[in-house]
Amino acid sequence: MSSAPALRRDIRIVGAAFLVLNSVIGAGIFALPGKVAINAGMLSPWLFLVVGVLFLAVVLTFAELASYYDKTGGPVLYASDAFGPLVGFSTGWLIFLARMTAFAANANVMAMYLGSLSDVLDSGPARAAIITLVTVGLKWANIRGVKDGVRTMSVFTVLKIVPLLLLVLLGLQHVTGTTLLPGGGFDIDDLGGTTLLLIYAYVGFETIGVTAGETDKPQRTVPLALVRTIVFTGLLYFLIVLVFVSVIPAASYAEATLVDVGRALAGPVGAIVITATAVFSIGGNLASSMLAAPRLIFSLAENRLLPQWFAHINEQHATPDRSILVMGAMALVLGLSSNFVDLAIGSSVVRLIGYIVCILALPTIRRQASPEARRRAFRLPGGYIIPLAALLICGWLIAQSKLEDWFKVLILLGIGIALYLVEKWVFSRRDPFT
Description:
Elements: H1 13-24, H2 28-40, H3 44-66, H4 75-83, H5 85-117, H6 124-144, H7 146-171, H8 177-180, H9 191-198, H10 207-210, H11 218-247, H12 258-302, H13 321-337, H14 340-344, H15 347-368, H16 371-376, H17 385-398, H18 403-430
Helix pairs in contact: 1-7, 1-11, 1-12, 2-9, 2-11, 3-11, 3-15, 3-17, 4-5, 4-15, 5-6, 5-12, 5-13, 5-15, 5-18, 6-7, 6-12, 6-13, 7-11, 7-12, 12-13, 15-17
């Protein structure tokens, strides 16, 4: 008798690092520098760096959480083990929605950047074709196997990181002592709103915990990939934004993007290269979303929090094919029917809610872990000082949100809970003694 198909542990340390990198670095860094610089001016690079250092408290907390687990699910498992299945489901569902809507939003941005390269691509039908081709292509690559998904993502990683590093190297010659260490006080307009906008450049790291069931030695690989990659990302953001404020005049901040930096440094060729880099960057982000987000649905179904139909594993490729198809179909519908702004509203708020639940779960998970698990865990120094700092940071960021963001979150959460209740009803009828 053949055994049931199972997920394969084909993601190793480099693939895990690329997954974090692509989950975090997407469309944000190509648009955010100018928007942040409007309020922070020459302090923008340091604001990016300071926020990254502060947000590292959240990342470190997730690194410890991940070190206790070797199964697919990430936030679903953390919240379920600490607070029960309903909270676990709600957390996983919200983070899935955040990833899925971000995929649809970024697919729109990719179509917009490609449209800037040619008038032929700058039309409604061309936009729809691009979004469809990208979504269907990534679905196909991920159904064929997690290795193909990681390879696709790795190609995008190289194609976006190398030009960004070249942009930094070319731009550093324009950095002066004044731009590096600007005089005057720490005066930033709308610090709360600016920080909430900026944090969009750092969210998405939780993706790596979701794929632990397909990661080699996940209790060690996931924490290392998380911390090292976020530190690298923060430093890269600092250098990119430093070049931005050194090259772009203050009067042009409102409309400028990294494409304008490329044009200033290398003329039309530079603009084309950075435009292509933006496309590759967004492509890598989309690839990581298509790799990780379906695993959230799979984990919810595997833990009997969603109908078992979603937990199907493809016998030939050992991938959660139905979850991938559902993720792709939902993202495609949203991508074709909405614009970037509508899709992005509330995305960061949804993630921050999930982060808070996971941070609050840490004491229970520490207490329930076996002595062997505690021995090999990525244990944070200082007791609960770092998780407490992470909790305060997430709470302050959520306080900057608007009432309409919460209304949309509640509607989407209600849809998920309805599916959860259907599965519980079906399961109770299937086994009346549970």
